[in-house]
Write a structure and sequence with these properties.
By secondary structure, the protein is an alpha+beta fold. The chain has one domain. The protein is built from four helices and 14 strands. It has helices at about 15-35, 35-65, 85-90, 150-155; strands at about 110, 135, 185-195, 205-210, 220-225, 225-230, 235-240, 250-255, 260, 265, 270-280, 285-290, 300-305, 305-315. A seven-stranded antiparallel β-sheet has the order 5-13-8-11-12-7-6, with no helix packed on it. It has a five-stranded mixed β-sheet with strand order 2-1-3-4-14. Strands 9-10 form a two-stranded antiparallel sheet. The N and C termini lie far apart (about 105 Å). The relative contact order is 0.15. The model has no long low-confidence stretch (mean pLDDT about 85).
């Protein structure tokens, strides 16, 4: 006798198997979807860094072409305005000791955007630092003695950036007489200081490139008056009261420490990029910097809208 064993024929998959497959596929899709915003963020950062890398040397070239290191302007009677760039580089802020003729001069921030918005000296803290004065170059000053918005936009914002409609046409530029919208997302300022206050030939220049900097009211500058750093080291200790300052990796700080030099005084005025931050207490933090401190530090200002800082030294060439 031959026995036949019945085999169970499987005609499809069960609902449980379908749901399991969908669940596994969903996990994979979620992993892929998270890459899109990260990729978009990385792309935006790459575009920003690429434009900043092109803007900084171009801005330095414009400063050389316009002889910014020796710039000044006069009033209607031909008298040199004491608050213009060249006289400010050779003098001291109000209430501060004069610079030593053979020592470094006080730094000056060429910043026509914030020069007349009531911002005051950069990093000014009573009893700690006299701060860094803001000046405007002669080529943006109008007949009223104030920076003109159109000239400021031309010389201190990235003019190659324009906005477009969904149709591909420039925003605001659909007719021959209309004006193309230039948002001014990228702008810059100059930081000047004389290596020897009595010598105009030795004027250091740095370009500070800003991203999305507010232009209607001063913002993005937070004073940290309780900072401690030693020259030739890469660490900086900051103590604060109240809200924690928004100091992050990649951010920029300006040293606004006041110090005596020879028979005079000065403000350091150097910029440093933050490499890492570590909270050391409820009201304190330690910062690691990309480059060593050039001088001892007692006060810094957080430059929240600055992307890179390009140092061009004392040379006049672009």
């Amino acid at each position: 006798m031959i026995l036949h064993t019945r085999t169970r024929v499987r005609r499809g998959i069960t609902l449980l198997e379908v749901l399991t497959a969908i669940f596994i596929m969903g996990i994979g899709l979620l992993a892929l979807l998270t890459l899109f915003p990260l990729g978009a963020l990385s792309m935006a950062r790459a575009v920003r860094d690429d434009r900043a890398a092109a803007i900084a040397p171009n801005a330095a070239s414009m400063a050389a072409a316009m002889d910014l290191r020796n710039d000044f302007y006069t009033d209607v009677n031909g008298n040199v305005i004491s608050t213009s760039i060249a006289p400010s580089l050779a003098s001291a802020p109000v209430g501060s000791a004069a610079p030593d003729p053979d020592g470094p001069g006080y730094p000056v921030l060429v910043d026509p955007v914030y020069a007349n918005l009531g911002a005051g000296p950069l990093g000014a803290v009573p009893g700690v630092t006299p701060g860094i004065r803001r000046c405007s170059p002669s080529y943006v000053i109008g007949a009223n003695g104030l920076p003109q918005p159109q000239a400021t936009a031309r010389w201190f914002t990235f003019q190659d950036e324009i906005t477009f409609e969904k149709t591909g046409e420039p925003t605001g530029g659909n007719t021959p007489t209309s004006t193309v919208n230039r948002p001014g997302t990228y702008s810059w300022t100059y930081l000047l200081r004389r290596s020897r206050s009595s010598s105009p030939a030795l004027t250091e220049l740095s370009v500070l490139v800003h991203y999305s900097r507010p232009t209607d009211a001063p913002a993005g500058e937070i004073v940290c008056s309780n900072a401690v750093g030693t020259a030739n080291t890469n660490t900086l200790s900051v103590t604060f009261s109240g809200d924690k300052p928004n100091i992050r990796k990649g951010g920029w700080l300006m040293d606004t420490s006041y110090r005596t030099v020879g028979n005079g005084a000065t403000v350091n005025g150097y910029c440093y990029q933050v490499a890492a931050t570590t909270d050391t207490g409820a009201n304190s933090m330690t910062l690691e910097l990309e480059t060593p401190l050039k001088e001892n530090v007692s006060a810094v200002v957080l430059l929240e809208n600055v992307i890179p800082v390009l140092d061009r030294g004392t040379t006049w060439r672009p």
